[in-house]
User: Fold Transketolase, C-terminal domain protein from [Clostridium] hylemonae DSM 15053.
Amino acid sequence: MKKSFRATLIDTVLQSANDYDNLVVLNADSARALKLTDFTAAYPDRMYGMGISEADMVGTAAGMAAAGLLPVIVGFSMFVSEKPFEQLRQAVAYPNLNVKVIATHSGLCVGQDGATHQALEDMAVMRSLPNFKVYAAADVAETKAAVEAMLKHDGPAYLRLGRDLAEDIFDENKSFYPGGADVLREGADVTIAACGLMVEQALLAASALRCEGINATVLNTYSVKPLPEALLLERARKTKAFVTAEDHSVIGGLGGAVCEFLSQTCPVPVIRVGVKDCFGESGTQDELYHKYGLTADHIVDAARRAVSMKG
Assistant:
């Protein structure tokens, strides 16, 4: 059953406001689109609408954190990661302030809003910043767990979410911690490390591969920074072939991070499934995933290639 990222996000933030009396929420003219109006109604003195001024929003959040508040920035991925990058670097990452950034509408799943709104570079941008943790949630249960884990952590963190609906993968008691990942399928022939909405596609691919006699490990690699290094190393030694899958550019995101790590620790073939160094366009999520190579069939093809490259 598919459920809404946004509905779960707001419910979780509302619940968290009861636990953290210093929690405040900031948005840049996106309260209605993100369904933040419920939070405004419940806590009118803890919601800050900053207008279409993302740089000011990040600077304000930094000041709030320095004064002891717990600021949570919520907005479209493109406009809370890439537009205010200088402020994220100088005002949040450099002084290592306790600011949380929750980014919705990431990747091609933004659909008809088109290339200007499809953040395909945000994980690459955010994981380049010292002190920032970078996460991606695959479904609503993981969204709730991720927000709760972020709020417990003292320091900057970035959470990447899809636009709206995601298939249920986890139950209500989902674990989530920095440097974590989940082993969803066991297989000895190839490892598929996926994050976000591509976890569903990775599971479908693993089922198809099993029919061909290829047994795939499937990892939900929700912690992109820090990586689950021990688990990645273990699986590289066991399967000796990797596929990464993400709704993001193949440059600098999960695939880039996995390649960087394994090239220095256990070099194995790695085939990256993602957007191939280009911008997106308008269309439905399904249409765009098919055109840009983000389906289970594309993961199956990548896994075959990775297995064929094993020494």
About this structure: The first helix runs from residue 5 to 19. The longest strand covers residues 242-249. The chain has two domains: 2-167, 182-308. The mean pLDDT is 95.
